[in-house]
Task: structure prediction
Amino acid sequence: MSKGLWVGVIGVMAIIGIGIGGFYGYQQTQNKALKTEQAKTKSMSEKLADIDKRTSTDKTDKESSNGSSSSSTSSVSSNQSSVTEKESIVLTDAQKQEINKAFLNWADQRAVMGNMAVNDYYFGHGAAGRGDWYANTPDGQMQVQDENNPGPTAFPIHIVGGVVFLTMKDASTGRQNDVVESTAGGYSDKADMSKPITKYILGDNGKVYELKTSDGQVSLTTGFGEYNDDGTASDYQPDQDFVLSGDSAAQTELQNLISAYR
Result:
């Protein structure tokens, strides 16, 4: 091969080598740039994830804080409401009669549903002294009949009215206009005394109290006591105490009726 040809071949190979080297160098530069960009991208993704995480945590903490605050406020409101319900309201006799009439109408429907009868003759007595009549409740004594001995100011609660649920001998249900023919006979005149009898009394503090017997061995004065003529405590005390009624519907009904006069 001539010398000139060899020179030409060597020149071509040099050019090819430079091209390959340049391409390799270029590729390395591109790969480095790509890795750098990927690193940046990964770093940013991690930052965004961290921000999202912190935001979510802050939101949860805030909601938890708001929830606690709301719960605290609700608790305070509940306590205030409870205090309000315990406050007695001064009602006239006419207002008490209206409230008791409305409650009796409401109780009429409940009695029918329970296949029972209802009447407002929850309390009565024959010849008695001049002392106030009262009932024992978890919230203190309730004045049932005012003879001014010891008088209204001696009692934390005063009666608004009441009803009695019973079973009639003739199986009548709902409101009954007459369940007692005589004070001596009491409920036994027309009620089936082998069945339970339940008395509800309504307090001017907006609460319903009840006295429930397992059978009909209950008289008109069952659950009530009387003070002496001079207003001092006597030996004639209630034979049974009333309890706060678990009838939530009755509690709501009385509170709604009384709220109209607050």
Observations:
- The longest helix spans residues 3-86.
- Residues 5-26, 33-85 have pLDDT under 50 and may be disordered.
